[in-house]
Amino acid sequence: GRLRASEATPPPPGVLFGTAKEEGNLLRVSGERRGEAGADVGSMALYSSESSRAWVSFKDGIWEECDVVNSSEQQLTLRITQTGEQKNVERKKIGFHYRNPSAVENADDFLTLPNLDEPNILHSLRVRYWAGEVYSHTGPILIAVNPWKAVTIYEQTVLEQYKAQKSTKPHIFGLAAKAFRDLMSSRKNQCILISGESGSGKTESTKFVLQVLTAVDENKTGASASICSQVMLTNPVLEAFGNAKTLRNDNSSRFGKWINVHFDRKGTIAGAEIKTYLLEKARVIHQSAGERNYHIFYQACQSAGQHKFLQDLGLEDATQFEYTKVCLHANNTDDVKSFERTKQALHFIKFDQQSQTNIFAAVSAVLHTGNLNIGEDREGNSTMEIDKHLQQVASLLGLAPEGIKTAICCRNITAGTDVMVKPETKEKAIQCKDALSKALYSKLFDYIVKNVNVALRLKGAQVTMQVSVLDIFGFEVFQQNHFEQFCINYANEKLQLHFNHYNFMLERQLYQREGIELVESDFVDNSACVDLIEGKGWGIQAVLDDVCIMPKGDDQALLDRLTSAPQMKTHAHFDSAKRRSDTFTINHYAGSVPYTIKDFCEKNKDLLAADLVTLLQSSKNKFFNSLFENQASDATPSKPGRKGGGGGSVAYKSVSATFKTDLGSLMDAINAADPHFVRCVNPNGNKKANCFEDQKAVEQLRCGGVIEAVRMCRESYPSRYQHSEFVGTFSCICPQAIGAGDPRQQCVAMVNSMKIDAKQYRLGKTMILLKREVVDNMERMRAKLLGGRAVTLQTSVRNFLAKMELRKKRDTRRKYLGCVHLQSSFRRTLTRAKYVRMLQAVRMQERRKEEEEAKKRADAAAAAGGAAQKQAADSQVAQDSRAAVLQGLGDDDDSE
Ligand SMILES: Nc1ncnc2c1ncn2[C@@H]1O[C@H](COP(=O)(O)OP(=O)(O)OP(=O)(O)O)[C@@H](O)[C@H]1O
Ligand SMILES: [Mg+2]
């Protein structure tokens, strides 16, 4: 099956058995504590010693380790591990889950954990974090925990391993390589959706994905090789202009991006394209304490000393500018070096010297606009000195200083055919100045992205498919949540909807294949919340746009309209109960978020004063002129999509309407591709290595939809088996079902004989799908049964082995004794033979001597009678020699 419970599962005694409804059903049958049988067998032993461990939560999101001392259906007696304190608690009033056995806690895929719930997922993530594992799976989601330190898992050799499918450990390289493989095999577009909170590692993950995608084709030639390096070089450029130091991340991306990497039929890279979303314009004019403006301002200012062209554009030390002097440095950032890198990257992405000059002129114009000195006269009207900053802005933008001064400090009012000039208040003039800075910078950013895209287009290439990467802000909830959070959370709600639909679609396909009836309520759906935001005519966006075009439409009017609408009052995701004078609350899938209404209308309109737009469009500088070509203004109250004023012929569209359209096309692209999900997790709020904050991690798991995904899995039928596999695995606990016929019929017989409730399983054509708790229980029964059998088996095997051993020993002894016997017989035979040989030799010698003597005697008798003395002597020699031979014979016998 796709998802299976692990071999032996810890059945939470109270929970599982307490929920048994039917008399004699499976849950009641196995009503004993786990680990009692077969306690010495493998995993059962593990469970028996850990069976009472659990997690308890007295406060949302905080889980403590505990031991279950006693449990009943309503009551629990728990011993808190850390304090040793014993507590009696009511089940309903606390969060409680049994803990997974430690042997499986650091599983690569959390969906294989026996207990699938928040504390167990969190704990496994923590265990893996401390084991140095950056990546884990939760079914289709890859979870990446930012290590906040260099780790040695991104070398080229590792990349090669994943490309060659030699490693299956969870890794971003593995996910990207799989996306490419899927692209080649299915010929269907793929997308990698990366989300997470600020500082969780989305942008780093995106770069790793691009690293893989630009390395997949080893035979790439000239043009595509250069596109590959250009794709990688877009990072320093986009980061310089779109990233900034924040309290949460020294290199925080202040925009969302969607990168399409194009491929031709053969899988060769054929260009790329980038789309960006919601650049944080407000950062240009204001940063919180300890945060910086966009990197490029500091890079250009700090490098002005080394580059004359920067000085010529009026750039100087960052301390000299209002917009940059708040915070000058960012950790781990060398602005001068980064400037060189940005400039080089700009050069490679085909920004010629003139374009680069234009870019830095815009950067300088923004900074000098920030320094414009707006004062107030006695009548309360705004004033502005024509100082060096105004002159610098005017010269950079190709305008007259007076024109800028009038456009910022005054307003033309048309009454019939007359045009009157009305001075603005200081506050309005400052707003107008800041709006100019924001517009200038966002236009510059759009210009850069547009030209990057021109460079990344490969002429003549046949684009047939693409792999896309989405690096987008995750769900956000702060103390104060503004229009930006509203847009971000709306995007995340849409992405979550896609995620749910994707999983639902997979399920539906499986159900259809298996011929199982689909129960819609089995699946989680957040479309109601999306409707609340984008509902035609009544949703929050529609009301917002409506209020924005009303002459007296302001934030208060918006809040009144929202809270008084009947659809809102009864909407499950619009929290009327939490209504306050300045906020409205949305219950998002990841939690409820109160939004502060202040500035919603202003930020949604995001318009420049009509006089300013007209002025900018009259610029002598072609570059700035073209930047503001399509700028709408606040000249006439207009309906979204209608022609706006100022620049005259431009269709006005509010920020939320634009974002809705952008998001719509993004979702279309995502829906048309096969998705791969990455959820990045920031383990702590201090950018520190080796620090894991439980509550922070658990919030992100919730916001990233991981807990929701797990819940979906739990609520559907996560344990899946082919019929024969099911029979093979579990027939031992109901052997009577084996004779029932084919595997499907056997499955039916098995579930019937175990009295499993019909709601707890679905029987398909080839598979059986079951609730996890049912399988948990069956696994336990199986482990118990097999445990008992294993003991018998072990006893017999040990008996058999012991007998074999004894027999072997006896054999050996017998062989030893045989050997000794054989040796002694052999030696005896040898000795005897030798003795006989020697005896024969002696006899022979004696005989020979006797013959010689006889001969001598005969000779002597013949020679003379005086030889009698000599004969006596010879006889003595013969006697000595015989004694010596006998002596030698005796020695030989001894040595043997
Ligand atoms: N896999 C990793 N290995 C080592 N360090 C990492 C890894 N991922 C992230 N980091 C560190 O964390 C920092 C923040 O990561 P990153 O900029 O990718 O976060 P982000 O999710 O894009 O945040 P934001 O939403 O603010 O843009 C990086 O600058 C880097 O120092
Ligand atoms: Mg980022």
From TrEMBL:
<dbReference type="GO" id="GO:0007015">
    <property type="term" value="P:actin filament organization"/>
</dbReference>
<keyword id="KW-0518">Myosin</keyword>
<dbReference type="InterPro" id="IPR036961">
    <property type="entry name" value="Kinesin_motor_dom_sf"/>
</dbReference>
<feature type="region of interest" description="Disordered">
    <location>
        <begin position="847"/>
        <end position="896"/>
    </location>
</feature>
<keyword id="KW-0547">Nucleotide-binding</keyword>
<dbReference type="InterPro" id="IPR001609">
    <property type="entry name" value="Myosin_head_motor_dom-like"/>
</dbReference>
<keyword id="KW-0505">Motor protein</keyword>
<dbReference type="GO" id="GO:0051015">
    <property type="term" value="F:actin filament binding"/>
</dbReference>
<feature type="compositionally biased region" description="Basic and acidic residues">
    <location>
        <begin position="847"/>
        <end position="859"/>
    </location>
</feature>
<feature type="compositionally biased region" description="Low complexity">
    <location>
        <begin position="860"/>
        <end position="874"/>
    </location>
</feature>
<comment type="similarity">
    <text>Belongs to the TRAFAC class myosin-kinesin ATPase superfamily. Myosin family.</text>
</comment>
<dbReference type="GO" id="GO:0016459">
    <property type="term" value="C:myosin complex"/>
</dbReference>
<dbReference type="InterPro" id="IPR027417">
    <property type="entry name" value="P-loop_NTPase"/>
</dbReference>
<feature type="domain" description="Myosin motor">
    <location>
        <begin position="105"/>
        <end position="783"/>
    </location>
</feature>
<keyword id="KW-0009">Actin-binding</keyword>
<dbReference type="GO" id="GO:0016020">
    <property type="term" value="C:membrane"/>
</dbReference>
<dbReference type="GO" id="GO:0000146">
    <property type="term" value="F:microfilament motor activity"/>
</dbReference>
<dbReference type="Pfam" id="PF00063">
    <property type="entry name" value="Myosin_head"/>
</dbReference>
<dbReference type="GO" id="GO:0005524">
    <property type="term" value="F:ATP binding"/>
</dbReference>
<keyword id="KW-0067">ATP-binding</keyword>
<feature type="binding site">
    <location>
        <begin position="196"/>
        <end position="203"/>
    </location>
    <ligand>
        <name>ATP</name>
    </ligand>
</feature>
<dbReference type="GO" id="GO:0005737">
    <property type="term" value="C:cytoplasm"/>
</dbReference>
<feature type="region of interest" description="Actin-binding">
    <location>
        <begin position="663"/>
        <end position="685"/>
    </location>
</feature>
<protein>
    <recommendedName>
        <fullName>Myosin motor domain-containing protein</fullName>
    </recommendedName>
</protein>
